[in-house]
From TrEMBL, chains A, B:
InterPro entries linked: FAD/NAD-bd_sf (IPR036188), FAD/NAD-binding_dom (IPR023753), NADH-Q_oxidoreductase (IPR051169)
The protein's required cofactors: FAD
Biological process, per Gene Ontology: aerobic electron transport chain
Protein name: NADH dehydrogenase-like protein
Length: 408, 408
């Protein structure tokens, strides 16, 4: 009797892309066809697109995450909780912090990292909304600033100033949540609402680049009405323990004192990619149409570390959950095809159903199936988008457990 | 027609003593007999004896306070929200931060202050459980330490160390609450419970001096079982931003690294007393039997800034809410008597009904009407003691609103 060694598929990362690939593979692949191994740093998946809520403190972080073992089929998928150190592409080995693992097929879905563009002090003194640990740290940091205010002989108003670097998707959504959270914090600590400053600093001359101007105007006026100050065309030159230094064009450098600085202006690919010698630009790999890394026929790269060009405008698609999940599905089908010795692989083509940007409770802007929406309707659509991600990965039971039903 | 000027009674402080004096005076004194003015820094009264719960985070600080205007009769009492700077005893004037006020009769019920005995760094780097602002700051400081832990490349276990200086009433009750709070915090921030240290440092050789030894043993073993480390006969030599330096007897000085240090070892009288030239020892005035300050026939001093000797053991009574409230009642009766031109004033004699020290949820030790109690029964008695204070100051409606009913 000859025992044929089954091929081993290893998926790195249980974010939107990795978890989607895993749940699709466990359905498509028979137990005798291949071994499936999922590696993730934590034993939970978190909704990256909800982290701004946990960071502002408007949603508890436990609502933002769920146990990975609740959505994987443990008879088919072997889950390893560990951090990835390096991929040895030639040896087909992934080095983890506590062990290493061989692979035949690899799905790299490790997610992005904040890009600080070499701005001095950002890494040391600014927060980034990157994971559950960071989100609850930001929430507690802001709350601690507010809790300290009334205890000091000399009141330091900058404790109540929050600077958000970047007016992209994350920055705007975080500001929207903060406008809901600040009145609660003022009530909690007996503080004057008018002493709080929410400042958004953006180097580009506009908010939410690429979005429809009418919707952008709506977003800006809604947030300004709730107290957000926008400083557009203004670059952060440095971050210090006291706040930030900014400059508008050629104007003189100015200091904004702030107890909290959150950097939400840039995402790059994962540094493991570069450490492993895979060709990339800022950690993002320009993948082949079938999602494989050029020169690596057994390595698929999906999610924030992959780069796919939008031919219509000849620019890369932004890294989003929507694209990561669609890539997860295509990648699962392609791996199944390879294992079954099919020669033709599917090409990935994003199907952008819509983009909705939240502006806090019951307000949002967006384009859904080509139609502009804003206000309560957009907010409803946003919640449906969030629920859809749960449905696709974990089915109806996960939607019931973790879904957003606080709809009008 | 001659308008006689009504005498003015001014009460400084709306703690247990001041608020009891006010509510009794407003019942006893007719509108035509005298004007009553109450001065307090905040527009709320807080339960000083519950602050350890708000500080640990086991009870929200809003449950620990109530609006002063809910318990005073505004047709009879004029409430001024301001801070007391100085009492000019000769001129019969109280200088406030924003104004000044004349008085004919004064009740000084300003409460105590932490006594740091000149230990270096305690004022700067240790917290004290002194008021609502401080309590929520301590709660948030501890939570912030726990929230930061997992975000640091190199884990600093001292972030999870809490040092309590002093094994008196406040220190022990605070430790009891912390033993309930720590498991919640570990769950909230995904931390290993065994990395947390609760250290109680006490210069005296025993816990809860003056308490029955059998009850003390029970308290120590219960707290030790829940993870508290006691360092008795050990003096805090210095507090630093990193923790504390301690020495046991003649032994070498040792460092305990700690993210949080709470000083709960000493109470002194109010510094306004000394600033006003009233004779005092550590801010406490050895009052006459009728509660008047020696040499000041129109100034009554009650609560933590008064000093009454327990003749049985020839030592001062400890500053407690029970004594402050009883003093408030006697002082109100004596002022009424003076205004009505009675010559005989009542002498204050504490009636110690009992003392119960909480050890966290559903556990306590105490002596009530001369009987030792511990465990759930003592915990029940403690809640009844707390409810009694509400009843005496604000009547049944305040008990219903703010009372403790989480009884077995």
């Amino acid at each position: 009797m000859i025992t044929l060694r089954k091929p081993r598929i290893v998926i790195l990362g249980a974010g939107y892309g990795g978890l989607m690939a895993t749940t699709r593979l466990q359905k498509m692949i028979g137990v005798n066809e291949a071994d499936i191994v999922l590696v993730n740093k934590h034993d939970y998946h978190y909704e990256t697109t909800w982290l701004h809520e946990a960071s502002a403190g408007t949603m508890h972080h436990d609502r933002v995450r769920y146990d990975i073992r609740d959505v994987i089929d443990r008879s088919k998928v072997n889950f390893i909780q560990d951090s990835v150190v390096e991929i040895k592409t030639e040896e087909k080995v992934v080095v983890l912090e506590n062990s290493q693992i061989d692979f035949d097929y690899l799905v790299v879905a490790l997610g992005g990292e904040p890009e600080t563009f070499g701005i001095k002090g950002l890494k040391e003194f600014a927060f980034s909304i990157v994971n559950v640990n960071a989100a609850r740290q930001i929430r507690e940091h802001i709350e601690y600033q507010f809790a300290n205010y009334n205890n000091e002989e000399e009141k330091r108003d900058e404790r109540l100033t929050i600077v958000v670097g970047g007016a992209g998707f994350t920055g705007i959504e975080f500001l929207g949540e903060l406008t809901n959270r600040i009145p609660e914090l003022c009530h909690e600590y007996d503080l004057d609402f008018h002493k709080v400053r929410l400042v958004c600093v953006e180097a580009a001359p506009m908010v939410l680049p690429g979005f429809d101007p009418e919707l952008v105007n709506y977003a800006v006026s809604q947030l300004e009405r709730k107290g957000v100050e926008f400083m557009l065309g203004t670059a952060i030159k440095e971050c210090t323990p006291e706040g930030i230094l900014v400059a508008k064009g050629e104007e003189e450098v100015k200091e904004i004192k702030a107890g909290t600085v959150v950097w939400a202006a840039g995402v790059r690919g994962n540094s493991v990619i570069e450490k492993s010698g895979i060709e990339a630009m800022r950690g993002r790999v320009k993948v082949q149409p079938d999602l494989r890394a050029p020169g690596h026929d057994n390595i698929f790269i999906i999610g924030d570390s992959s780069l796919v060009i939008n031919e219509e405008i000849n620019r890369p698609y932004p890294p989003t959950a929507q694209i990561a999940m669609q890539q997860g599905e295509v990648c699962a089908r392609n791996i199944t095809a390879i294992i079954r010795n099919k020669t033709e692989l599917e090409s990935f083509k994003p199907d952008i159903k819509g983009t909705v940007c939240s502006l806090g409770e019951d307000d949002a802007i967006g384009v859904v199936y080509g139609k502009k929406v804003f206000g309560a309707k957009a907010s409803f659509m946003k919640k449906m988008v969030d629920n859809r991600a749960l449905l696709m990965i974990g089915g109806p039971s996960l939607v019931l457990k973790k879904g957003k039903f606080n709809i009008l």
